[in-house]
Amino acid sequence: METRNLGASGLKISAISYGNWLTHGSQVEEDAAVACVRRALDEGITTFDTADVYAHTAAESVLGKALAGERRDGLEVFTKVYWPAGQPGANDHGLSRKHIMTSIDGSLRRLGTDYVDLYQAHRYDYETPLEETMEAFADVVRAGKALYIGVSEWRADDIRRAHALARELHISLVSNQPQYNMLWRVIEEEVVPTCQELGLGQIVFSPIAQGALTGKYHPGQKPPEGSRATDDKGGADMISRWLRDDVLERVQRLRPIADDAGLSLAQLAVAWVLKNPAVSSAIVGASRPEQVTENVKAAGVTLADEAMAQIDEVLGDVVYRDASFNASPKSRDF
Fold it and tell me: Residue 334 burial by CB count (10 A; 0-12/13-18/19+): exposed, middle or buried?
């Protein structure tokens, strides 16, 4: 497994990290979830990403159980805070000091660890002063509950302001976690250049576009039974934007490029993401251990520039590039 620095920090993480959004605690049984984590470890993955909101806190608990007994300093465990994850209330979401302090303790308890390597702001909170948020994060770091701070799906201007405050507070803001794949490139114009300037690495989620880039979905055909597109616990909603016939037809046309590179379509998608020097790690998920094994084969693969150009030509105008799509809720009343 290839390792990369997380941005300009000294923290090394696996180029492919394992995430349990949409799976653990909801779509797959706990035994299967644990088997996937064990396979990830066997394949050399040391970086694991979750969030308190995933499966209403169950995902953190499942991950904690799956990693129990592993040497803690040999792992990088990431989680996030922002969305509601406990009893309903006025302060059960956002990035207020109260919510951050309550949430970090809950996450550590569920994960069965004294600290997380990276604590991430899951979205930007327009209802809390950024100074309050960053000061709370600084206290979390100084208490030894997190080593580094990151953000997820933040806009470039907000990342810049947060980075300046982090420098003043002497804490390390080292990463952004955006959605990024062949079809969704909204971070390229503004977020990536800003993060490269400031030394933040990208830990990208959905490199396979929730499965749309695997090639299992065909234009004019019903989704395969048991696939994410047939899941009524959230998976179908997440993948729906990619199930248009024009998108699926372009994805099928990527097969010759994948074949020439000796890769499956899923491996091609992960390798495409890792080709970007701004990307520190690509998060993959799985409902079966063999999916983990397939995805990690993209680690260390370097796609030729010709292949990258061919991919751009095939996908053409179905790619989302507008930076305005990279946005957080304007209000906590969602």
Answer: exposed
